[in-house]
């Protein structure tokens, strides 16, 4: 079976029975002989000339295919705990991206939708590239979305590993997984060189380029690509040997100008997925987050040797609604779980008034950094370093990584290479330190080494630390990398600049950055990081002015947006919750009538997402006017059980509510 060109069905059957090749190679014999459940479907890709003969437009070389399967099993099976990945074997089948997914930061998406996608349809992993019905055709372009840390790359590895073992999609003869991290290292490529450079053992790319072998091309991590895809202005290319700009190559592959017969699977964060026109996407799926049982299992796996600690961590997470919602994402659950476990272990035997229970996002990440800075880690023994040396080293490393993180954030850059490290003055040898390995992950391939932060929020926290430190002495706008700008003196001036930029930015990339920046003004965060990264009580000089400025951002006569809600969350991070507490108390006592000023409406919009009062039912009876209802409209979308009786509504309000119920994002299930 070394070379198949023209076989009768009988010869193909004999060849198959004698073959000891892997399933993907034996599949060729099945197809020609008309055997197997998948044979009838795959038969469509061949040309039947007589009843007894089939031309197979592919030359299959046993060593090439076997080497490909072995390399994929080795690469994708490394570190893959298949027992903990049951969640990824069923994806959510969606009809496109919602407005929230297209426009908002990942964290705001989770908080707003409470980690619950508005869909009930699902599709098993093994059917991801199969027709949905007997009369439909397989999707050519599939897109799978998910927020940062949800498990997109893990899903790709799981699929490829399972396929390479012959357990799913046996009709696909070649699966070619590529990452945009790898594509970033090229300026120009042809379709042929793309395959040969990534998979040097594929010595006959013509069988893939010509479309004879059913092929699945996987492009993982579109959000990490250095160049946005421009489908409107991309040059058309149909020559697989012609070298063109990599972004043009990708657009031509997705459009079907190149590798026309190949299926294409793209994974991306939701905002990045909007780069691909909806008309080119045949199937869109979404990765769901943890349910309650899965979160428990995940934490049990994290703390395998201490189930009591795992139970305490879970109890702390479930007691905080905002934290519970964020922990539906595995990447955030790992960070939060590690931080809370560190808090629980270090607070044993200490007076309750001296320990700071982590409640805000900034406090969670401060505990995480304190744990990393001190060399204490749930899985590793404590390192013995002199405190003075540790402080000096950590300040230098965090400063360098913080600058990289901040300017990377401004450029929407989340993957870095050796030249980026050198450009920011980072000594590559320092990246071997235990602190760096806990903040920055490293991926080594044959042709490049890539670095990326362990989670998007880790980059944002480091960026905020850098900005906080630099703003105290900077005389020019830090957002201008060249340093040329109007003078800007004093921390508060820089703080206001950051908040205003986040409120005005179209891409929402700075929302969590300013939340962390506000959190660094919190007395509890200062207490956690003083001596390491912050000066004791230094925030007290400008904390009150920062609070006043943030409160001014809430006084809007316009519709309340998630930006306004984010400003309230900044006040929560800074530990100033008087307004929100007052409104929450009024909600409990049903005395909101007459007190919903623009500022209080902003606090109410925040409480709709974060307060336990709104979990079972959002009761806004007898307190809304037309203007208040209009300003809150976009936030009422995400209330599952909404009570609006006794509000003396007129017809114009009913029209507003009717428009809300027809919106794609709407999650209202019960309306009174």
What does this protein structure show overall?
There is one protein chain. The chain is α/β, with parallel strands linked by helices. The protein has five domains: 2-50, no CATH class; 86-287, Rossmann fold, CATH 3.40.50.300; 292-359, no CATH class; 382-575, no CATH class; 576-671, Ribonuclease Inhibitor (Leucine-rich repeat, LRR (right-handed beta-alpha superhelix)). It is built from 30 helices and 18 strands. The strands form five sheets. The protein has a seven-stranded mixed sheet with strand order 5-4-12-6-11-9-7. It has a three-stranded antiparallel sheet with strand order 1-3-2. Strands 13-15-14 form a three-stranded antiparallel sheet. Strand 16 (618-619), helix 29 (626-636) and strand 17 form a beta-alpha-beta unit. Helix 4 (62-77) runs antiparallel to helix 7 (152-164), helix 23 packs parallel to helix 26 and helix 28 (598-610) packs parallel to helix 29 (626-636). The longest helix has 24 residues, at 387-410. The radius of gyration is 28 Å and the shape is globular. The termini are far apart. Residues 1-9, 28-60 and 376-385 have low confidence and may be disordered. InterPro entries: LRR_dom_sf, NACHT-assoc, NACHT_NTPase, NLR, NLRP_HD2, NOD1/2_WH, P-loop_NTPase. This is NLRC3 protein. It is found in: Cytoplasm. Residues 140-272 form the NACHT domain. Keywords: ATP-binding, Cytoplasm, Leucine-rich repeat, Nucleotide-binding, Repeat.
